[in-house]
Known about the structure:
By secondary structure, chain A is an alpha/beta fold.
Amino acid sequence: MAIVIGPVIVARGLRKTYDDVxxxxxxxxxxxxxxxxxxLGPNGAGKSTTMRMIGGTSTRTSGLLTVAGLDPATxxxxxxxxxxVVPQQDNxxxxxxVTDNLxxxxxxxxxxxxxxxxxxxxxxxxxQLTEKAKEKVTKLSGGMKRRLTIARALINEPRVLLLxxxxxxxxxxxxxILWDRxxxxxxxxxxxIVTTHFMDEAEQLCDRLIVVDRGRIMAEGSPQALIRxxxxxxxxELRFGSDRNAEVLSQLADLGDRQEVLPDRIxxxxxxxxxxLDEVTRRGLxxxxxxxxxxxxxxxxxxxxxxxxxx
Amino acid sequence: MSEVGRTLTDSNRLAxxxxxxxxxxxxxxARRWGWWFYAEHFLRSSKAYAWSILGYSVGQPLLYxxxxxxxxxxxVDQGVGTVDGVPYxxxxxxxxxxxxxxxxxxxxxxxxxxxxxxxxxxxxxPISAPVSPAQVATGHFVAxxxxxxxxxxxxxxxxxxxxxxTSPWSWLTIPVGVLAAGAFGAPLQAYxxxxxxxxxxxxxxxxxxxxxxxxxxxxxxxxSAMPAWLQWIGWVSPIWHxxxxxxxxxxxxxxPGWLAAVHVAYLGGLxxxxxxxxxxxxxxxxxx
Lengths: 311, 288
């Protein structure tokens, strides 16, 4: 395959409406080869729709979109031959064995059995599913199914992997195993495009991301740059009990660079969280719990939209 | 050497070993053969049910042969002598073949279609690879037809075993049965693809469309034996058109050439219409 020198994906004024609902509202972005690019936003932000437009399984209403230089709307099969797609909802064939799921998927690309058999074994090794090779998919846990879906997406050796909410519904341990596997792929130069509503996932996996809300791009940059730009170094989280939070706030209004009140806690933004906590205590306020932490993308999202990522 | 080093080497080979065909090659293949790739998947999944499919395709017609052919048949043959100039078993045999596969279509083109779109979402896998929705529609249809070829062959062998056929052309009952199943199955597939909820309509189709189509379609007695105001059911039923063709090739029933042509055209027309509609329907539903 020729090496793609320009961007792998270019979107300009990309827009998608369903009847009168605007799912994706005039967005622009580019993804460079080998980059890990994230779309971070809450459910319903238009992330999955964007992913499906990239794969050509959703038609855009207007704007320009190219994937490996091709228009997915007119060259769907050609575009998808370049991609590995991990959909949000699993669509494995539960009646088939783990290995057969890889083989039938590989056949969709017309890949011969002589290639697929050894390839399937390698991918199961990578996905840590070798012992399950002959089991039916119904026997797998949620995390194993997710890893199998990722292995399946790699069957055609794609340079670009689309991951739509890769760890939603998984327990913390399963998520870490999955991130580790994805990190391996990233190290090998596979371009990852990840949608997520988990800020820790975006921080773990993405070199660069766009924060999306209601179909629009709110901010763009590396996780660190976004945090630097839109938040302070540290955050002090205080809980006074849900009925007292609002009333205490008046006594904290001058503290830190910025305050946010969530239903269950108050967030105070400052470079030095410990110093701020000392000041709170000095004023005779005694929170039920307090926590000083580093700013995260969650704070960036809160700053940009006034809402939490996970509601 | 070290564990880490080895794993990295392995996974390097994993991402691009260069052994996979290039995207230009795989997409060209999928454009041409995508429908067959999905049919392959469907047939492979069917293997899990091989025994129940075999039981259904052998057991049910066998029961019909025994009860209708031998039980009812001996009564009919003693009473009126022959039906349509042949023993009752010979008369009813081709009808059993055709109606069994047509009724098979009412199973294969309903719940599995709903499963593809909604329950297991199997249709969403090929379309995230280079296969198109229209090819998925055709692949599902073709795979089911291939299974019907096998099923019709088994029933044809039963016809031979029971001595229920007299013509050397009786093997043509196999393509006739499959054609009739396609004439009913393809439009049903297109209809099933429009349904968004849990498929309660399928029970209605089974009770109020399939059963009358089977009972009033000249299956057990000639259509002409029914009152004229009920005969239209036969005329719209793919089972009747298929059965008449099957009787023609199985024992040389007196079907004029023009009428045989009407049967073929009606069945072929329904099949083609159904395939076109389902391809369109799948495209609209899977690419939104």
